[in-house]
Structure formats: C-alpha cells, structure tokens
Design brief:
Layout lengths: L9 H11 L3 E2 L1 E6 L5 E6 L2 E6 L2 E8 L9 H9 L1 E6 L5 H6 L10 H5 L3 E2 L8 E2 L4 E12 L7 E13 L4 E2 L3 E2 L1 H4 L2 E3 L5 E3 L18
Antiparallel strand pairs: 1-13, 2-3, 2-6, 4-5, 5-10, 6-9, 7-8, 9-10, 11-12, 13-14
Length: 210
C-alpha cells in the first residue's frame, strides 16, 4: 500500500504514525498557570534530546474537540517552566485519569488521586508518587501547525533531577526493573517493560580499520 499524506485526513495519519512509532515514552507534564493553579497531563510525543545541556522535548497537539491549544502549552508559554514526571506501572491508572479534557481551573492532581510536591528549582509542582522528575526551564517552542492535528514542539532544559534511591544503581544508572516504566502504543493500548534484550554495540572504528 502506498499512501500520500496530502490525500488523507489528519486523523488517519495520526493512527498510522502512532501505530508505527512505538513504544513511546510518556512525559507526564506538570505546569501552573499565572494564578498558580496546577495542571497535569500525559504526552506520548515526548523524548530526550541531549545531555549537554540536558534537554527534553514534548509535543502538544491542537485539540481536535475545539481547535484550541492545550492548557499545558498555554501554561508553559506563560511561565516558561514545567516538570516531567516519569510514569510507572503503579501510576498507570492515575496517568490515564489525568488525560481528561477539562477546563483550565480543573485540578488533575486531585482527579487522578496523586500528591503535589514542591519542586526545587521551578514553580510547577511534581507528582510526589513518581520516582523520577525533571524540572525544566523553557528553551524554545517551535510551532508546527495551528489547525487540529497540528501542534508545537516544547523544548526544555533540565535544571534539576529528582530520583528516588530505590530506582538508582550508584549515582548515574537507573534500575529498569525497579522503575517499571509504562510505554504508549496506539489507541487504548500501553505496554510494560517485561522482556529486556541486550546486545553489545559495534566497536568504534573512526580513524581505524574494520
């Protein structure tokens, strides 16, 4: 099958993309608005960018229901800060609950049954139950499209990391078995990390011979 994106509705392209680009990590993003009201929402268009400077990104799509930007994006634009909370197996139901579309004054922390915890370097709160948090200052927002199906890339610089001792090995390694992360698939489907495959990478041959 050969498909021309220009001839397909954005909903079909979304299904093809999310059914192919997987599993995707979930960035559980907490923000506040200018009045200090908290917001919490999951984003599976999320990933690491680089470690020097430590940088992450998430993509906030334009809502298909009303064609407006999501509260998370509005809050980041206003305050220039956000927190990435990592989603674990224990937080799966809470993460899903927080994906609800609701008015800007709706408290997703309360609705999802998770606890607000003060951050160290930014104003938005953390999800206390999450074992890893990246506190971020906004670096850049790249607007890709303003119509439904469009969205913006939000790039943040990590200014503080919180990691629970039980998910750490030494000072700089994560115990995946203890973390128990959840990945996003398509539709209503998610996945657990239950089958880890290891393979040694090829040796560096820059400047040498095979």
């Amino acid at each position: 099958m050969e498909l021309d994106p220009a001839t397909l509705p954005y909903q079909s392209i979304y299904k093809i993309m999310t059914g192919s680009v997987l599993p995707r990590p979930i960035g559980w993003i907490s923000t506040i608005d200018m009045d200090g009201r908290p917001n919490l929402a999951p984003f599976s268009f999320f990933n690491a960018v680089c470690s020097n400077p430590p940088t992450v990104l998430f993509c906030s799509s334009v809502r298909g229901s009303d064609g407006k930007a999501k509260d998370t994006l509005n809050n980041v634009r206003a305050t220039k800060e956000f927190v990435v909370n990592l989603v674990t197996d224990e937080l799966f139901q809470a993460m899903n609950a927080s994906s609800i579309e609701a008015p800007a004054d709706f408290n997703e922390f309360d609705y999802a049954g998770v606890t607000l915890a003060s951050s160290v370097s930014v104003k938005p709160p953390r999800v206390a139950e999450s074992p890893i948090h990246f506190e971020c200052k906004l670096r850049e927002i790249i607007e890709i499209g303003t119509d439904p199906g469009g969205g913006s890339i939000v790039i943040g610089t990590i200014v503080h990391i919180h990691a629970n001792d039980e998910v750490m090995i030494g000072r700089d390694k994560i115990n995946i078995s203890a973390l128990k992360p959840i990945g996003r698939l398509m539709g209503n489907s998610y996945c657990r990390v239950t089958d880890i495959i290891e393979i040694e990478r090829p040796k560096n041959i820059l400047g040498g011979k095979v």
